[in-house]
Write a structure and sequence with these properties.
This protein is of the alpha/beta class. It has 7 helices and 10 strands.
Length: 249
Amino acid sequence: MSDLLAPVRAQTRPDDRPGESLQVSGLAKSVPGGRQLFDGLSLSVAGGEIVAILGESGVGKSTLLNILAGLDEPDQGEVRVGGERIGPLDEAGRTRLRRERIGFVFQAFHILPYLTLGQNVGLPLALVRSDARAIGERARAMLEAVGLGGRAEDYARDLSGGELQRVAIARALIHEPALILADEPTGNLDPDTAARVLDLLAAAVRRTGAAAVIVTHSRATARIADRVLTLTASGLRDDTAKEVLADGR
């Protein structure tokens, strides 16, 4: 599966990788009504590393992901992406950070139906650049990399769920982010398609040197991770050894 990524030779950035692309320290978050989701949560993720965060529905996984992306505010604590602190940034600064340094892979794909696949993949670059030809070439290369060569002019209606998630991965990686955030990326896929998508995501992370955080309730999804953590009210518990033994690796 990693051979699919050969056409795209992303270069690592000395300011982001291979050091810690994500640093989180002392995060706390409560929801309205006072229930605490987590407290004292700290985490470091290096470039090229995949961390899976497990937890049941309602434990705060998606909230944590939104905090890492600067879409939600913690009650206390600090998040750094590629060495840059999110907390002091205004909304424009956070938008700029997401466009430049963060790639998203969503359970629901979020592929825009009125754009071609090439336009969808190229969207992160189109938001910050004006060279349409270069963006189109890059988007076609990314689609080729995920096994969808020659499909740049197609639309979402022409694709299966697994193919749509491949498009989402290509879009998340096109701007060579320091950090990839994936929220239940295989939740809408059958087991065989989910396995192929996970292998593709893992290969992409290794090649580009991005850090990746995957939140999921599925241990099958967590199999591609270098570390497996479980989100609890007191923070993150390292369950890597248990998951490795259970998986037979």
